[in-house]
Amino acid sequence: MSLETGLRTLLVVSLVATLAPFVAGLLHAAKVPQVVVLILGGILIGPEVLDLADRADISLLANIGLGFLFLMAGYELELELFRERGGRRAVVAWFVTAVIAVAVTGVLAALGFVHAFVPVALGLTTTAFGTLLPILRDNDMLSGSFRHYVLPAGAVGEFLPIVGIAIFLSANGKVLGLVSLLAMGVVALALTYVPRLARSKRFATIAREGEHATSQTTLRFTLTLLFALLLVASNFGLDVVLGAFLAGVVLKRWAPGDVHSLETKLDAVGYGFFIPVFFVSSGMGLDLRSIAENPWRLLVFFVLLLLVRGLPALALYRGLLPLPQRFQMMFLTATALPLLVALSEIGLSTGHMLPANAAALVGAGVLSVMVFPGVAVALNRYSGSASDPANPAPADAEPEAAG
């Protein structure tokens, strides 16, 4: 890759990212999320249509964008939610989904529709929590009681499949994969104690004085933490998104200095540049030719995402959420993309996944991002229930008393 070629690709990708908010704004009546515009823009400039940019030129930036997506998901997660009924129900819902996914994938394998049993089964249990966050925030769907259910559901649908990837699809084998996963958790936990080791008043003063100056001490430390955990995860043979997710969880507990300001800066760096690059890159990598030759495969996976991952929410959240919010939960939890990209790449690299299925699985994820959140937003707009800040959390969403 020459410097000129790389800069040309970066310019085209940046142009798509810059125009995306304006296009989404013009389509405001249709409630089209920016993520959809970014993916469509990537398809447009990619090799399958105009061929204006080479995805390989921005692969590193796209991977960092994926890392930022999961960093923000981990940062947004409130661990206290898992002490509430919504958190416990989210875990139960995921395991119910996992059982259904195994059964469905077994039938598909018996019919010869799929060869890669584990990647496909895991793919049907995923939720694109990081992808949904900006959509939920932009549409004020994280206020009121709904957040007590949608945040844990999204986090579980992103984290537990990552754990499954680490254990069942690790290049080191299942046992070493589990050991690596535990080691990764220990590393992340150890990093939460770093601030306690820095007891020097002079060190603390420098960090505090520099966080809003040109030094940007806390932001630089945060980026270093992200890159370090991404590297550690990669060396352990784990998917890098696990390192990014844990980095976000660590930051939530660690977060020195002005936490509010740090979050604003992370939004600026992540959503301002790296995350849009990832979504545009995802669109550029979509194999339209393979999908056009086997469109029914994409439709099968698209429907299965809704039936396997989303549909159980209608029953499992009965009595906890009103029907409109249960439908919103169904469509939101069925939204998947980043992990489907990772699972497809793993399946192709091992030779177990058919190229047609890899393209269809990723295509179904792209289509889910394009359709499902928009439906959920429309339901929220018409019902008005999830977006009402005055709607208090139900009594059963409060943390249980100790003992």
UniProtKB/TrEMBL annotation:
Keywords: Antiport, Ion transport, Membrane, Transmembrane, Transmembrane helix, Transport. Residues 385-403 have a biased composition (Low complexity). Residues 384-403 are annotated as: Disordered. Gene3D superfamilies: 1.20.1530.20. Pfam families: Na_H_Exchanger. Residues 16-375 form the Cation/H+ exchanger transmembrane domain. It is a multi-pass membrane protein. It is found in: Membrane. The chain crosses the membrane at residues 58-79, 91-111, 117-136, 148-169, 175-194, 225-248, 268-286, 298-317, 329-348, 360-379. InterPro entries: Cation/H_exchanger_TM, Na+/solute_symporter_sf. Belongs to the monovalent cation:proton antiporter 2 (CPA2) transporter (TC 2.A.37) family. This is Cation:proton antiporter. It comes from Angustibacter luteus.
